[in-house]
Write a structure and sequence with these properties.
Elements: E1 3-4, E2 8-11, H1 18-25, H2 41-51, E3 58-63, E4 69-74, E5 92-93, E6 96-99, H3 108-123, E7 128-134, H4 138-146, E8 150-163, E9 169-180, H5 181-188
Parallel strand pairs: 5-7
Antiparallel strand pairs: 1-2, 2-3, 3-4, 4-6, 7-9, 8-9
């Protein structure tokens, strides 16, 4: 699957993208991506190789003008309820997004995420999209809000991605945002009337 926007192409990863990926995952910008840290170009190539062939839910964000991979976006179908039985409908998605720091602040994340959400809602049967973001991650929260997601709540000391200097888990406060398909359709309709 290839998704095209005004300035971007969202496409499956290629083996030749490893150097661009290494550029933004040498030092993951936020703790929740600490586990994705790449220690060498060689490691980037090996990890990319494992995920070549993912064509539906995992996309490289590519600049049309240069072909450079400036980030990635992904989300997979899930039931959205931890105790759901195995036959429950997988119509819920939770996106993970990141951009190379040199390409932030240019509207590319919004352009990519908007197109990706529309693809999930219109083509992949999404009913609900939710996002977790840490309470200090204002840029990610801002992106959620621009996409029309509702702030649903804050989970205090919800998760730990890294350790404190004394080796104990460092717990983080997590904000949850979400949007339903009917909300997405409503905000996209022409001449919408606020009631
Ligand atoms: C979260 C993240 C993807 C957001 O990226 P971003 O570049 O800040 O987001 P946007 O695409 O919305 O662009 C932001 C700004 O670009 C500016 N901009 C510049 N040129 C623009 C253009 N041509 N069109 C639109 N916006 C433009 C806008 O002013 C916009 O700010 P505003 O919404 O206040 O007006 C990015 O900060 C990131 O990768 N963070 C690290 C990873 C991370 O935290 N992931 C989420 C974990 S929960």
């Amino acid at each position: 699957m290839i998704i095209e926007t005004e300035r971007l192409i969202l496409r499956p990863f290629l083996q030749t993208d490893a150097a661009d990926v290494y550029e933004y995952l040498r030092e993951p910008a936020v703790n929740c991506f600490a586990y994705m840290k790449l220690n060498s170009l060689d490691e980037a190539e090996k990890k990319k190789k494992k995920r070549i062939g993912e064509t539906e839910y995992y996309f490289a964000i590519v600049l049309k003008e240069s072909g450079k991979v400036i980030g990635e976006i992904e989300a997979y179908p899930e039931t959205g309820e931890p105790h759901a039985d195995e036959n429950a409908v997988r119509d819920t998605f939770s996106p993970c997004w990141m951009l190379n720091i040199n390409y932030q602040g240019k509207g590319y994340a919004f352009e990519a995420a908007y197109a990706f959400f529309d693809y999930l809602f219109q083509q992949k049967g999404a009913r609900r999209i939710y996002a977790y973001t840490e309470d200090y991650n204002r840029s990610s929260q801002h992106l959620c809000e621009k996409l029309g997601m509702r702030r649903e709540g804050v989970f205090l000391e919800f998760v730990s991605f890294v350790k404190n200097p004394d080796g104990t888990p460092r717990y983080e406060n997590t904000v949850q945002y979400a949007i339903l398909k009917r909300e997405w359709d409503w905000q996209r309709r022409p001449n919408k009337v606020q009631i």
